[in-house]
Amino acid sequence: MDILTPMETTALLLSLRVAGVAIALGLPVAVLAAWVLGRYSFPGKTLVDGLVHLPLVLPPVVTGYILLVTMGTKGVVGGWLYQTFGIKLIFTAEGASLAVAVTSFPLMVRAIRLSVEAIDGGLEAAARTLGAGPVDRFFTILLPLMAPGLLSGAIVAFAAAMGEFGAVITFVSNIPGKTQTLPLAIYAATQEPGGDAVAARLAAISFSVALLALMLSELLANRVRRLIGQV
Amino acid sequence: MLDVQIRQRLGAFALDIAFAAEERGVTALFGRSGSGKTSVINAIAGLTRPDAGHIRVGDAVFFDSTRRIDVPVEKRRIGYVFQDSRLFPHMSVRSNLEYGLRRVPAADRRIAFDPVVDLLGLGHLLDRRPRGLSGGEKQRVAFGRALLAQPRLLLMDEPMASLDSARKAEIMPYIERLRDEMRIPIVMVSHALDEVVRLATTMVLIAEGRVRAAGPVGTVMGRLDLSAATGAHEAGAVLDLTVERHIPADGLSVLAFDGGHLTVPQIDRPPGSPVRLHIHARDVIVALEPPTGVSLRNALAARVVEVAEAGPSSADLRLAVGGSFLIARITRAAVRELSLAPGREVVALVKGIAFEPDSSGSASDPRRRVVDV
Predict the structure, then answer these.
(1) What is chain A's mean pLDDT, rounded?
(2) Which pLDDT score, from 0 to 100, does residue B357 have?
(3) Which residues of B are less than 8 Å from A230 in CB distance?
(4) Between B79, B86, B90, which is nearest A229 by CB?
(5) Residue B252 and residue B211 share a domain
(6) Are A229 and B79 an interchain contact pair (Cβ–Cβ within 8 Å)?
(7) Contact B325, B303 (CB under 8 A)
(8) Hey, are the CB atoms on B86 and A128 less than 8 Å from each other?
């Protein structure tokens, strides 16, 4: 990679990894949440809905701070993880993944839920009369039909995860090579005298990745829609 | 034997239905929109749960509130053809057809893929997606998909309601073939009398969530007290006859039933084959003596069993002809002058008939199909 400096490559790869892990772990949960919120009504649904969407309206710094308090080595959950499994999230890339997973989660849920709600419930009833049980129906009817929303939700959330700043820096700090993702590297560069050129190059990389992701999302979603017979 | 007895509260509406039907042939649940017909088949399918009652098909008990039996939909193996097809948009026609089939153990598969594709004429559609199909084609795929799930019973919810009359005429023969060639009982919901008369063997008349009448189509259609529920303008009787012989020289065919013979314009069916006729009340004339010197050829010995007012000046007579019934709409003045009362022996003169199924292709207007005889 001659185009990028070693520092840029490190930051880019770290960002991709952090966002990738976050989406991979968050997606199944998001599908479940979107499914439950889009299809069923139950007591406390408004509260669950609110909690899911909270990271979207909360300042990311606050999200990061809450994670710091609960998931730090002295926090309730983080302390237990550290004592029992020796897992340390604070100041690590895994911690960064958790932070961006939380902030990008509502974006995924919203996109997937819209496509769940668009699926005709009559199709599931038809599948039932043809002998398909709940799990069977989920994989043969619902999952394929929610695929466009799932895909575009995942990709938009991925792009947003790559760009998350506040929650990451608050929770896992800004350690080059460990937790310094692209936006954090840009911030660090602007803090140094003469770092403008470095910041500009990093910003250009961010810009390209984000644009690429959005275009890919559109393309893939269109192809999937054709694949499942919607157009 | 199909045995259904259910009670169910649906908002302000109370469903209280009981009927039984033969395990072969088509049972039509007939009634106006909102009478509760679809709720009945949804309960049979298991898509909704009755408050009380039982649902049995042969030896299989699908629901029994006293024995606390409630088999889940996916375990009932009851086929359901929905009004709006509900084909899976992300699958080809072939995958749609195979969806139910794949979920039945190989040992239980009696109905095979290829014969169903042939029966319903789906061969050229197998690789297409539902999106590109016409309404009639979609319904045919839906029939096939339900059939291939090896159902013990096939439910149809107004399978032709979303089709225009040309598409309807196209799909009716397929339902007849399902009825005649597959040994699966069919329960069909309909509010179109022509469909019921053409396809059904048993008719269950439903009004306001209750069964008003149930029995063979000819018997239910012959009842005067139901003409308002079945649609007064279509009042008439249904006769099942067999072709006795043809008279090619005159272009006529002679049809026989236990009430006598009817001569009709020659029909294209071999002697011995069954024919169903729909005889409208307005096409039946009543005489006290066998008439002479008139052009009418079809006179049947009949007995008046019931007289009912049908309008300010008209009355309907229910006439027993052998084991079947005819309805005659005449003026009230004629009833009085001829002293027509239950028990009176008369002659029923038939001046027009409609074939079921008709070959003229005008399924939408029952009056247009009437042939003078």
Answers:
(1) 91
(2) 57
(3) 89-90, 131
(4) B90
(5) no
(6) no
(7) no
(8) no
Q: Judge: B131–A229 Cβ closer than 8 Å, yes or no.
A: yes
Q: Could you please state the CATH topology (level 3) that the domain comprising A6-227 is classified under.
A: MetI-like fold (1.10.3720)
> Which residues of chain B are under the pLDDT cut of 50?
232-233, 358-368
List A35's β-bridge partners, or say none: none
Q: B181 and B327 share a domain?
A: no
Domain assignment of residue B227, yes or no:
no
> B71 touching A, CB under 8 A?
no
CA distance B327 to B310: 11
From chain B, pick out residues whose CB is under 8 angstroms from the CB of A133: 74
- Asked if residue B144 lies in contact with residue B117, where contact means CB atoms within 8 angstroms, the answer is yes
For residue B224, give both structure tokens.
Answer: 């005067």
Q: Does B73 touch chain A (CB under 8 A)?
A: yes
Q: Which helix (H) or strand (E) holds B286?
A: strand B284-287
User: By the CB < 8 Å criterion, does B80 face chain A?
Assistant: yes
Q: What is the mean pLDDT of residues A54-58?
A: 93
B-chain residues near A136 (CB < 8 A): 103
Quick check: is B55 in a domain? yes
Segments making up each domain of chain A, as ranges: 6-227
Assess contact for B348 and B321: CB atoms under 8 A: yes
Please check whether residue B136 lies inside any domain of the structure: yes
Amino acid present at B326: L
Residues whose CB falls within 8 Å of the CB of residue A123, separated by 6 or more in sequence, listed in order: A141, A145, B86, B88, B89
Whether residue B216 is found in the same domain as residue B275: no
Give the CATH number for residue B344.
2.40.50.100
Q: Which of B47, B99, B130 sits opposite A130 (nearest CB)?
A: B99
pLDDT at position B94:
97
Smallest Cα distance from B19 to chain A, Å:
22
ipTM (interface pTM): 0.81
Average pLDDT of the segment spanning A121-135: 94
Number of A:B CB contacts under 8 A? 68
CA distance B365 to B306: 28
pLDDT of residue B234: 61
Contacts of A145 in chain B (CB under 8 A): 89-90
B104 and B208 share a domain?
yes
Q: Which residues in chain A have Cβ-Cβ distances shorter than 8 Å to B72?
A: 128
Q: Are residues B29 and B160 in the same domain?
A: yes
Cβ of A130 within 8 Å of Cβ of B146? The answer is: yes
Last residue of a domain, one of B221, B249, B275: B221
For B297, the domain range is: 236-372
B230, part of any domain: no
What are the residues whose beta carbons fall under 8 Å from the beta carbon of B334, sequence distance 6 or more? Answer: B286, B340
Domains in chain B, number: 2
Nearest neighbour of B88 by CB, restricted to A133, A141, A227: A141
As given in the structure block, the two tokens for residue A160 are 């947003």
Residue B170 and residue B275 in one domain: no
